[in-house]
Structures are given as structure tokens and as C-alpha cells.
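ARCHIVE CARD
Drawer: 12
Card no.: 0347
Subject: one protein chain, sequence and derived structure
Cross-reference: see card 0346
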Amino acid sequence: MEFQFFPFTLNSFNIFLLLSFLVLLWKKVSKTSKETGKLPPGPMKLPLFGNIHNLIGGLPHYVLRDLAKKYGPLMHLQLGEVPAIVVTSAEMAKEVLVTNDPAFAGRPERLAPKIIWYNQEDMAFSPYGEHWKQMRKICMMELLSGKNVRSFSFIRKDEMLKLTESIRSLLGVPINVTDKFFAYTSSMTCRASFGRICKDKEIMIDYIKKIVILAAGFDAADVFPSVKILPIVSGLKGKLLKMHEKMDIILDDVINQHKLNHKNGKMGNAESGDEDLIDVLLRLHGSGNLQIPITIRNIKGIILVSTKY
């Protein structure tokens, strides 16, 4: 007796792998959803993908506004494996940001911040805890102190003048306001952070723009974090690592130049002659007075996130 087998081609094998992957992922998502307990109202969820389909086809803030009109000011969305709560009223925002602040202060681990911002060791993406509290204190007491803010006022005025002159020169021509303001804020923060030491400022601003595009875009790896191969398959991980390496070279160069100036007795590298942000962070790094010592990686992460925001 002969057995007849269907041809098992490469295509059918790929389909088999895909279906197996989807079944395993569905089991994992289903198990997670059963353990979450009572959740706020929200739109109907598709198997495996949850509410991802609800966000397709429009600007995110418009889509979320329309959904909130139907489901209320506290709405639950399931984005693949990731549960999300959308808050759209002042009352609910107060509950989240003030009344229950510690419960919502955590930050999810995402691929882009983990790679670009030095394993999320900065103050924007760092998980809530003692390290984050110290970073926040440094930001408020040192980086954004009244003295520092006043010392950078001429930079803000100078960059605003350049912005208005640039817009005036394009009279009668369509203007991309987003690009103009991005260039304004990036140049201003670079000057405040690096002082007179950044020969690659324009290159760095271009890198920052590319990083923002990569970090802000949707990637399946962020909504299916348990599938470790997704960032590699999508190509996102490789792009992020490449941009991180380029930025790291520039930041190393700037920090080393600051260290050399300090060694030669020049402690203030800002355009005003005072300390710039790297001077401040290097001073704290070498002081030994912090409960949790900050590292050069911390300094790079803080500077990089400050130029983005």
C-alpha cells in the first residue's frame, strides 16, 4: 500500500509556521486578558490584535477623541499584548496624574528608548523608582535652576530671531511649520547643552530628527513584546542600533572635550562663559555626593532626551 502525501513546499511551510505562531500568540494574549480583571469600557476587540484596527485610518488624536465620545473619558484599548488606558477629561486626568500618581508613574519598556536612550537611563524614560526621583531632582535643582534658565535666555532670543527671519524670508511660499519649530528647539537645546563645543551640531540635529521618526512610528515589536524576533524581522532594531552608534560617537567627542577643558581649568563652556548642561552633569558625576552616582551613560541619556524635547 502506498501513501500519498501532499507536496510540502517552502510556501506551505511558511504558512504553517505563521499559523503556529499566531496560535501560540493568541493563547498568550488570551491568558493575559483573563488575568487583568475588571477594565474600563472600550471598543470590541479582535482576537490577537485587540483594538489595533480601531487606530488605523486617521490621526491618532482624532481617532481617540471619536472613540472617547462613545466609550467615555476613561477607555480601555488592547493593543496586541499591551493594555492601554485612554484618559480624555480633566477630572480623570487629575485622578491619574495627581490622586493616583505613583500607580501610573511607571514607564513601559519599549524598543526605541531602550536602545537610543541608553537602556532608559535618562529622566524621561527611566522606570519610576529612586533613580528616576534623583534624575528629576537633578533636573529641577540643577539643569532648570533659575540661574541656568536666565543664563540661556540670550540663546532663546537669538534662536527665535533666526526662526522669525527664516519665516519672513519665505513670504508667499508654503512653510512646513513643524520642521521650522523642530530646528528651532533642537538648535536651542544643543547650544544650551554643549555650549561652544559641538562642531557637529547640524549633523546631530539631523540624527535627532531621524531618531524621532523611528521612535514615534508604529512597530509590531512594541505591541507584541514577547515575540523577540519581531524587531529583527522588521528591521527596526538594526536601524535604531545604527543611529545610536552615530549619536554615541558625537556625544563621546563632546563629553571628552568638556573633560579636557575642565582638566585645563576651564570649567564653564557655555556661550555665556557659565556652565552648560554637560558641565553641570560632569560636576555632579565627579562630586561623589549623590545617593545614586550618575554615570557617563546617564549623562548621555539626559543630554540626548533634552535635545529631543
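Annotation on reverse: The radius of gyration is 24 Å. Residues 115-308 form a domain with the Cytochrome p450 fold (CATH 1.10.630.10).
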